[in-house]
């Protein structure tokens, strides 16, 4: 498959790109850097994620789009602003499959979180300010679209080798409260390979 990637040069994004290439996919990625530090096998599209023209070039001819854009302390509206632009670009290009990263603190209809996670989510939403609101508005944009989207909600991300052990559910809390970035990257790649959790936001954690 030809997979378009946003956030490819971030900590999780690099692992995602490596995993997609390992599985034999063709990867095209967006970059703001003149000379991105990444695998030579990747085709790079220059531009910012808020640039509609760059997004159109990125998704053209793609079979799926994956976003590993993470929250930025200095930019707390990036997800709510990028999502509608990306929806439009995908609709115009005829690309239906989208996989992205949200956060475990976001609540969606149908959730049956554990008491622990309900408390954590309430605290995150109360203290997270615009960063949490950004993710909630991003989810709403995708929920309002007709695309085959999936927004993965991981807890705390940790570094380390992949374990291959991931617990996930559309609405029920996993037992653990962290996940290795490498396992998250593999889970995102799994969702590119198969259409699981379409129009859902699964909770995921290490097992």
UniProtKB/TrEMBL annotation:
Domain of life: Bacteria
Gene3D superfamilies, A to Z: NAD(P)-binding Rossmann-like Domain
Molecular function per GO: oxidoreductase activity, acting on the CH-NH group of donors, NAD or NADP as acceptor
Residue stretches in coiled coil: none
Span of domain NAD(P)-binding: 7-195
Any one Pfam family match given in the protein's UniProt record, by short name: NAD_binding_10
Region (Disordered): 156-177
Transmembrane segment boundaries: none
Name of the molecule in the record: Putative NADH-flavin reductase
Organism: Geodermatophilus poikilotrophus
């Amino acid at each position: 498959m030809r997979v378009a990637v946003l956030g490819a040069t971030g900590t999780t994004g690099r692992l995602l790109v490596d995993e997609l290439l390992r599985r034999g996919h063709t990867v095209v990625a967006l970059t703001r850097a003149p000379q991105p530090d990444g695998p030579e096998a990747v085709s790079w599209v220059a531009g910012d994620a808020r640039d509609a023209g760059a997004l159109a070039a990125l998704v053209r001819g793609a079979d799926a789009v994956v976003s590993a854009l993470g929250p930025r302390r200095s930019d707390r509206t990036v997800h709510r602003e990028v999502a509608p632009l990306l929806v439009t670009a995908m609709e115009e290009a005829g690309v239906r499959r989208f996989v992205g990263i949200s956060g475990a603190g976001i609540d969606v209809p149908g959730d049956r979180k554990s008491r622990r996670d309900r408390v954590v989510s309430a605290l995150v939403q109360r203290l997270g300010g615009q960063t949490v609101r950004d993710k909630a508005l991003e989810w709403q944009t995708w929920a309002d679209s007709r695309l085959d989207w999936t927004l993965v909600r991981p807890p705390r991300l940790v570094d380390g080798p992949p374990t291959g052990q991931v617990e996930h559910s559309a609405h029920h809390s996993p037992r653990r409260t962290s996940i290795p970035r490498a396992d998250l990257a593999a889970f995102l790649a799994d969702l590119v390979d198969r259409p699981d959790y379409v129009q859902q936001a699964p909770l995921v954690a290490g097992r």
